[in-house]
User: What shape does this take?
Amino acid sequence: MAALRLLVAHGGQIVTPAQLRKTLWGGARVAAGSVSKCIDSLRAHLAPEECIETVYKRGYRLSCAVSTVPAKTQAPDPAAPAALNRLAILPFATGFGVPEYLGAAAAEEAAMRLRDAISSLVSVLALDSVFALAARGHSALEIGRLLNADLVLTGSVHALPLSYRLRAEMFSVPDGGQLWAEDLLVEKDRVAGVESELAQRVALRLHGGGLSIAAAAAEDGESPRLREAYELYRSAHYDWQSLQRFPMEDALRRLLRAVELDPRLTGARVDLVNLCAAQCLYGYTPAAAAAEILRRAAEAVAPAVFLHEGDRPSADLDAHAEAVLPALGWVAFHVDRNLPAALRAFALSAHLPPDRWTTCARAMFALSRHRFGEAIEMLCAALRLDPYSPWLQALLGWALHLAGDAFGSVRQIETAYAQFPDIADVSLYASLILAYNGEAARAAQIAQELSQRSPNLDLAAGLHAYALACAGRADEARDVLERLQWLSRERYVLNSFTAAVYLALGEPDAALDQLQVSNEARCPWFFQMLADPRLKALHGVPRFEELRAILPAMEAEACDETAK
Assistant: This one.
């Protein structure tokens, strides 16, 4: 977009590669072919592609006509398409005897299929905000008004002796009137048909005609083996996103079984790779173990050759399978320390629409490369689409903290915590940021409450110890660290955030030891820790500077490889 703005601003004039490089990346060192790749990507989004002309040895020129229409005097175009109705789909309530995951699954799957099938008729709002507001007890119409929706779809699922009855209702948000309601009956042994039938009925209501929705699960309903695979996948999809250690481990087993039963079930493979990345990020499994399962899950739909050869994926790569590429990029960067492969993976997936795990991978990648402005801009753009997403709000607070914006990070995390005090991500970042910015007692209370809610979340224990150290309660902080050390003899314990604890306790050598262990374990937080303002006291220490030199060396190597 920045490249397009520059070309439009100089319409008909030559824009040199140096101008583009300065506008797009400032003074950052980038690969020699970055400008040409950016222009190629931009051309692919424009029609006709030839409107950007390459002027040999001089640069690029926008060859189409450019005119300016003042915004205040611009008359409405009667031929312009009307704005799309904004549809919020709530998780369906589940009655007695109905699997808990089915209500959320019905909403998620229906939303995905409606986006694919009738995107020209309705705009389906981001589910994270909708689900978060529903969890806080807001009614359907309240959620619609908060998100500025035109329509809301809600309902419930009840169990009958041989079938499930799904009650669906659609309301108009401006006047609160019910537009339609109907009951759908789906046999219990064809549970995959619930989402398909719901999407079909909604589409018929909005479209007024027939609609073909490609639903592999519904087509596979004739096979008990494939039905079992799909049901394992949907139940695991619901459980692993709780981000609790044991439900995630159980979901991992179900997803592996689902892929074994149906190797073509792309959704299960995408969930597998995202689950493995999340397990590592939250400290439930070592990076190497997560990477091994992740690679195996991704191999069938996105072979590793895509990260090493060429700039475009194979034509055989399923559009939905491209969702595994950000996680593959995460592995390439953090585990393999192969920045060129990571850059290719993220470049190949740059066109993917934003969702929780794609956006998370992109933002964390930018933060790990210390490109804080890029990450902040990305998260702000995502929040404009998904304003009530707790994890987006929390991650933005962390990005501002890493960027050194203490005031902005505190303000952002206070806003997030006021809305979502029971969400683990929000509590984690709130504890860290508040402890660093002079509210150690409150931060310790937040971290302690989180540790009690999530006793297997080692990140919470580490941040509790940091808040205690900042509050002057050194003995209590050391007790928490000692418990973590004992736990590490029984299972894997993530130690990324303990370096700051030791530094707050006045033990810089121990802090450096923790960072070294984090580096050797290929921890996904390692590079971000090197930029953490809490570790500023280590700047200039030779051991710390050796660790900080790893990232610039990787960046330089990536530039050299691209130049070759």
About this structure: Confidence is low (pLDDT under 50) at residues 208-221, 304-317.
